[in-house]
Amino acid sequence: MVKNSLNLRLALESGRPLLIDTAMGTSLLQHGMSSGSIAEEYNLEFPHIIEEIHRLNVEAGADIICTNTFGANKYKLAEKNLQVARVIDEAIKIARQASGGRVWVALDIGPIGTMLKPYGDLEIEEARDVFAEQVQIGCHSDVDLIIIETMFDLEELSIAAEQAKLHGHGRPVFCSVTIQNKDRTLMGNSINEIATRLIDLEVDAFGINCGFGPAQMKDLVSTLLAANQGRIRSLMQPNAGLPKINADQQIIYDMPPSEYCKIMQEIFTNGVTILGGCCGTTPEYLKQLRQMVPRES
Ligand SMILES: [Zn+2]
Question: In terms of DSSP bridges, do strands 64-66 and 173-177 run parallel, antiparallel, or are they unpaired?
């Protein structure tokens, strides 16, 4: 069956487990992306690399792949003189090509990169316009769902989720935040407070990505499940362990896939059934995750 937003909604309602692809950034670094480049440029300059990364994730057993559009907003792209519509259209075309209709394609949206007032210069209306533009372009090019991830400010996340619901034409919306310490984001928002807001906004899934490795995330499973009250699906996408600094002063994540998946197995058994990987994870991690999470057609 060709994947679309309607059968994704059925899958969500059935409670079936879903695997999201692994980190695009990590795979791009492995493919030699230099520090001066931005990942979104690759959609235009090296589409075959992006397609190959998607394809490896599809082959590893992803149910959902995310477009390479994390920072595809007008502020971040302006630094490289790139147009939002061109970057997002291309990214979706590449992901669709790699998906072959076998997996769902998610429009990936990350933080704008500028803080809302009073912490930064960004007005609420400006943030609204940024997210509305991304969602409208994404849905025009026809993605199956929208994933808003690595957020740390509940206000910004709420604006993004509202726009995704408003312009998403019924497509499922997943939201995910990065937890900084204990159960709070950098801005001090608790998991419970965020879930309450997102349930009101009628998003389809809420969870945690990045920041922590699987061991730290496992400790948050019961908090997340309680916060989501069984009303929306729960998701977790940890990094490959906690960050380390290597001899070249670069940040690395080096928990081996087998160790990673052992803890993911516990997270899954404890009730978080939408899983994926963030920084440091590659299709190899996904392949092992797939072995423990049953696949349903
Ligand atoms: Zn990450």
Answer: unpaired
**Tens-place pLDDT, residues 187-204:** 999 999 999 999 999 999
The rounded Å distance from CA 19 to ligand 1 centre is 16
Query: What are the backbone angles phi and psi of residue 184, rounded to the nearest 5°?
Result: -125, 155
> Is there a contact between 228 and 191 (Cβ–Cβ < 8 Å)?
no
Instruction: Fill in the amino acid letter for 118.
Output: P
On the question of a cis peptide bond just before residue 118, with omega within 30 degrees of 0, the verdict is yes
> What's the gap in Å between 239 CA and the centre of ligand 1?
6
Give per-residue pLDDT as tens, 99-118. Answer: 999 999 999 999 999 999 99
Question: Closest by alpha carbon to 54, among 101, 11, 97?
Answer: 97
- CA of 277 relative to ligand 1 center, distance in Å: 8
The predicted model scores a pTM of 0.96
